[in-house]
Amino acid sequence: MATSMVCLVALCLVSPLLLAGAVVGNPGYGGLFPQFYDHSCPKAKEIVHSMVAQAVARETRMAASLVRLHFHDCFVKGCDASVLLDNSTNIVSEKGSNPNRNSIRGFEVVDEIKVALETACPGTVSCADILALAARDSTILVGGPYWEVPLGRRDSLGASIQGSNNDIPAPNNTLPTIITKFKRLGLADSTLDVSFAAQLRQGCPRSGGDNNLFPLDAVSSTKFDNFYFKNILAGRGLLSSDEVLLTKSAETAALVKAYANDVHLFFQHFAQSMVNMGNISPLTGSKGEIRKNCRRLNNFH
Ligand SMILES: *[C@@H]1O[C@H](CO)[C@@H](O)[C@H](O)[C@H]1NC(C)=O
Ligand SMILES: *[C@@H]1O[C@H](CO)[C@@H](O)[C@H](O)[C@H]1NC(C)=O
């Protein structure tokens, strides 16, 4: 797993334990389903995949950035594309929050995808679903697992800079704080969540060092794999939160070992956790809207 200290990294794929956390917490699909656009926009998935593939071909690191964008969206008010809104009269953009400032990226790729989708099927595919599909496609493109993406999310009518500052796990949060943050999202009912959080934090420090590119996995920094766990076992974890996974909890230590020894187990858990994370408080039915431009509300000022 190639993660980086700051998500600027080559592949700060939020990974491994990511899944673990969600695995336990959130089994339902939240009213979403993979066939949502099959009639209204049959080419939607193909369009997203092809544009993500072009972006990742231009720059491998974009794969990690797009996974992180979905994560930072879902942890703030649910998976509703609130993270994509720019500042405007009534919006204080989440892009300026501590976890996001000078580090979150990939907005231009989302814009390109949105333009292509609006051409193919105007007003149909939400920005929140673009983020969910782009995270999955990015993962596959760098060697990670496939999963079916439940769809049908709608886009928010607002953003929350406070939520962005407070709800995303920070690199210096204590374990109890992290567990609390997961519980609030319905993703916590086991210590698995702790390891999930540690992994997320890792790719996404709250601030500082944002110009440093630091592969957390120096062995395979452009591929989605389980080297992150192998490195921890070998005493080559980069951050203190790596070490903590092995030393502070028997359950997370068992996961580190299991994932280091079995890449398929890791992939399976990761995929399930991404589905679970993607189910956090989606807007469905007539809630929210389908934005025409992901950066602003349809009725913007
Ligand atoms: C949005 O505007 C606020 C001031 O209202 C500013 O502090 C912040 O940096 C801006 N955010 C972005 C992403 O430009
Ligand atoms: C964690 O980091 C943030 C941002 O750098 C800082 O404001 C905060 O005081 C730190 N908290 C602790 C407990 O160190």
From TrEMBL:
Its EC number is 1.11.1.7. One of its GO terms (cellular component) is extracellular region. Gene3D superfamilies: 1.10.520.10, Peroxidase, domain 2. The active site is at H72. Ca(2+) 1 binds at D73, V76, G78, D80, S82, E94. It catalyses: 2 a phenolic donor + H2O2 = 2 a phenolic radical donor + 2 H2O. GO terms for molecular function: heme binding; lactoperoxidase activity; metal ion binding. It is found in: Secreted. Binds 2 calcium ions per subunit. GO terms for biological process: hydrogen peroxide catabolic process; response to oxidative stress. Disulfide bonds join C41-C121, C74-C79, C127-C294. The record marks R68 as: Transition state stabilizer. Residues 1-22 form the signal peptide. Ca(2+) 2 binds at D217, D225. Its cofactor is Ca(2+); heme b. Pfam families: peroxidase. Residues 31-298 form the Plant heme peroxidase family profile domain. Keywords: Calcium, Disulfide bond, Heme, Hydrogen peroxide, Iron, Metal-binding, Oxidoreductase, Peroxidase, Pyrrolidone carboxylic acid, Secreted, Signal. InterPro entries: Haem_peroxidase (IPR002016), Haem_peroxidase_sf (IPR010255), Peroxidase_pln (IPR000823), Peroxidases_AS (IPR019794), Secretory_peroxidase (IPR033905). Substrate binds at P169. SUPFAM superfamilies: Heme-dependent peroxidases. Removal of H(2)O(2), oxidation of toxic reductants, biosynthesis and degradation of lignin, suberization, auxin catabolism, response to environmental stresses such as wounding, pathogen attack and oxidative stress. PANTHER family: PEROXIDASE, PEROXIDASE 72-RELATED. This is Peroxidase. It comes from Triticum turgidum subsp. durum (Durum wheat). The lineage of its organism: Eukaryota, Viridiplantae, Streptophyta, Embryophyta, Tracheophyta.
